[in-house]
Write a structure and sequence with these properties.
Layout: E1 2-6, H1 12-23, H2 26-32, E2 35-37, H3 48-58, E3 81-86, H4 88-102, E4 107-113, E5 126-130, H5 133-140, E6 147-151, H6 157-162, E7 168-174, E8 180-186, H7 187-197
Parallel strand pairs: 1-2, 1-3, 3-4, 4-5, 5-6
Antiparallel strand pairs: 6-7, 7-8
Transmembrane segments: 79-100
Keywords: Membrane, Transmembrane, Transmembrane helix
Protein name: Alpha/beta hydrolase family protein
Length: 200
């Protein structure tokens, strides 16, 4: 299984801060292949086909081919993936997730941070994290996801990505008995819980 990080359009150092907060020694995880960071310095953050082809290249799976030369399903992708995406990267990640499934792969979950205005749907659990209540509320109109979190008090958009441990707010989820609750948490706590839930 691999965690795929799909950043937005910003300084790569913000992504380094994010992954170090979440994974600690993230460079060794990248070397082992279970943490993949989409290189937005080389490709558009919002390009689903570029994310998909990047995943195919690093996992040694044949990349996308036009319908006339075969279907996605013929690639027989095996690697299960959790996507963590931010801002413009949410656009590319949701498209890549659909393509990965069509290619026979498994998407274990997609976690969208500040994917404002991006409709989210799929045959996999989807989680939303927002930097304020308005972004949470308005994004939920386009697919709220399995669970959500929003910062309260609000934090800056880029701070949510670079410093999830400092974003305090409300984790909206269901208990084991099905009761909907809002629990105080940080964005990092919520992210860690969701990753653990999906065996990462």
């Amino acid at each position: 299984m691999a965690v795929v990080i799909c950043p937005g359009i910003h300084d790569p150092k913000l992504t380094e801060s994010f992954v170090s907060q979440l994974f600690g020694d993230w460079r060794s995880r990248c070397q082992s292949g279970n943490l993949l960071i989409f290189p937005t310095q080389d490709y558009p953050a919002y390009s689903g086909i570029d994310i998909f082809n990047y995943l195919c290249s690093v996992t040694q799976v044949p990349s996308f081919s036009p319908p006339s030369s075969g279907s996605f399903g013929q690639h027989h992708v095996k690697l299960p993936i959790v996507f963590i995406c931010f801002s413009a990267g949410v656009v590319g990640a949701i498209a890549a997730a659909w393509m990965w499934e069509q290619a026979g792969g498994q998407v274990k979950a997609l976690i969208a941070l500040d994917g404002w205005g991006v409709p989210l749907a799929g045959n996999f659990p989807i989680y939303r994290i927002s930097h304020d209540h308005f972004t949470y509320w308005s994004s939920a109109l386009l697919g709220g996801g399995t669970e959500s979190f929003y910062a309260d008090p609000p934090v800056e958009h880029l701070d949510l990505w670079s410093s999830p441990q400092t974003a305090y707010g409300w984790w909206l989820h269901r208990t084991s008995t099905g009761v909907e609750t809002a629990s105080p948490a940080t964005a990092k706590t919520v992210l860690s819980d969701w990753l653990t839930r999906h065996h990462e």
